[in-house]
Amino acid sequence: MLLMVDIGTLIQYHRIKNQMTQKDLAAGVCSISYLSKVENGTVDPGQELLEDLSERLQVSIDQFLTFDTNQLIQKIMQLYKEINKSNKSDADLLLEEINETRSPLHNPKAHHLFNLIYLFYLLESNQREEVYVLAAKVLDAKESLLETHSHLYHKVIGLYYIYSEQPRQAYQCLLEAYSQMEKDNQPDADIYYLLAKSLSNMDQPAYSNHYLQIAIEQYIQEFFYQKVTDCYILFGINYTKLKVYNLAEDYFLQVLHAKPMMDMKDHSAQIQYLIGVLYTQMEKRNYAVKFLKNSLKNEQDSHHHLKVYRALTKIHFQKQEFDMAVWYLDKGEQIAKQLNHQTSIYLFELLRVQLEGKARSEEFINRLSETILPYFEEEKNKECLQEVYQLLVYLCKENGQTNEALFYQEKLLNLH
């Protein structure tokens, strides 16, 4: 929709955007009082003055005279396609162009759509702090987005829930995206992949593999090898959970060593961490330490370091290399506190009391059952709950508390 706009309002908008005062903009062009009247809409700036103001504001005259909401929406949808194809450089250029043309005078629905796609951009580029701020705005605009972009809304919010470790919410959201995809008859391999990822995070690897197989077949047809690589990684994770270790190892090593797949810079640290976890479960601890240390070298993200330090603490504890275990524990606790990551703070606390031989104390068992356990139950964090229940079963047995041990054993079984 092409509309005539309030020129004065747009001049004021671009002036403020450029961090200019009325005095700055008016200098050598017109008086401050005249500019004020232009911005208030009481006088028409005229063609010559408009040209001078547009030059100083570095904005084309066309942007002052008209604006096209439909054109903006088309650019936003093109941005979505570039992000979806992992064309980051093209996406960055388009994002810059959109930010130059977008103004408060565009239809609010266009701004809601931009926020949704920009959230997608932030999720794909792992910009944590901005993600959570923008997600709140997008969730507030749900009704507006569902009117015309239901599939996109549920897809991006499903991805957000995966990112924020809320797999059940992600699964429900992605089922809505799947339903809309079927209704519109517009296949989207990403929906199958994201359904698979949410099910894997819910510890349902067999169901996850069903959707993953559909996704990988579509990605191969589209010659989208970066997404094929993502599928291989998730297959490796699922087979690790299913304890089919030989298949898990095959998938991980294929990604690590197969050059035709893609540039491995973005995946190297993740794969090395996952192989480290796999070898830990296979009790190949020396191999596990090697891959986990390499993972630390190849990734600067603090959240990644948290899980690697925790894994290394556990391995050195199992190997009775207590000095090394404490070293990694101290590093992990320091980062967890800096990030105020409560889940990791509690998990490192569990490791510390075990390392210091204080786990059987009544004080710790009470804290474990009355504070830490309820926190993980509230978070519905299945992996952490499993670890806490296992520890409580062991401690209750060691302290001769048979009924309590049976109670937590039943809780552990119900997780599966």
Helix-strand layout with pairing:
Blueprint: E1 2-4, H1 7-17, H2 22-26, H3 32-40, H4 46-57, H5 61-65, E2 66-68, H6 69-84, H7 88-101, H8 108-124, H9 128-140, H10 142-148, H11 150-163, H12 167-184, H13 189-201, H14 205-221, H15 225-241, H16 245-257, H17 268-281, H18 285-297, H19 302-318, H20 322-339, H21 342-355, H22 362-379, H23 382-398, H24 402-414
Antiparallel strand pairs: 1-2
Helix pairs in contact: 1-3, 6-7, 6-8, 8-9, 8-11, 11-12, 11-13, 12-13, 13-14, 13-15, 14-15, 15-16, 15-17, 16-17, 17-18, 17-19, 18-19, 19-20, 19-21, 20-21, 22-23, 23-24
What is the CATH class name of one domain? Mainly Alpha
Fold-level CATH name of one domain:
434 Repressor (Amino-terminal Domain)
Main sheet record: 2 strands, antiparallel
Can you identify the CATH superfamily of one domain? lambda repressor-like DNA-binding domains
Q: Kindly provide the radius of gyration, computed on alpha-carbon positions and rounded to a whole number of angstroms.
A: 27 Å
Helix segment count?
24
Question: What is the spatial order of strands in the main beta sheet?
Answer: 1-2
Helix/strand order, N-terminal first: EHHHHHEHHHHHHHHHHHHHHHHHHH
Terminal CA distance = 54 Å
Strand content: under 5%
Give the name of the CATH architecture of one domain. Orthogonal Bundle
Class by alpha and beta content: mainly alpha
Shape: elongated
Q: Which regions are unreliable across 5 or more consecutive residues at pLDDT < 50?
A: none
Helical coverage, percent range: over 70%
Mean pLDDT: 89
Instruction: Please count the beta strands (DSSP E, at least 2 residues each).
Output: 2
